[in-house]
Write a structure and sequence with these properties.
By secondary structure, the chain is mostly helical. The chain has two domains: about 25 residues; about 50 residues. It is built from two helices and no strands. The N and C termini lie far apart (about 115 Å).
Length: about 90
């Protein structure tokens, strides 16, 4: 009877998963120690930051669209004034 089974050996995958798991734990603990429990990044916090960034970009696009429309209207008005001053021949 053999005592070695398919799960009794340590393979490269098992070791790398263990190392990765330990590394994540160390980084998480270090982050909590450095920034504090209240400021640890979470999925919800990341999602909220993404929403805020999207809103800020949308506001900037809207402002730029408003400025372009304003410039186009001013240019059209100037062109119209210039055409009114020109004598029709």
């Amino acid at each position: 009877m053999s005592t070695t089974g398919p799960n009794s050996t340590l393979g490269f995958t098992t070791i790398s998963r263990t190392v990765a798991s330990l590394a994540v734990g160390v980084v998480h603990t270090l982050e909590r120690a450095v920034v504090g429990d209240g400021r640890v990044r979470t999925a919800r916090g990341n999602a909220w930051e993404a929403v805020c960034a999207d809103r800020a970009r949308a506001d900037q696009r809207a402002e730029l669209d408003r400025l372009v429309a304003e410039l186009a209207a001013a240019r059209a008005a100037a062109r119209e004034r210039h055409e009114l001053r020109q004598p029709v021949s």
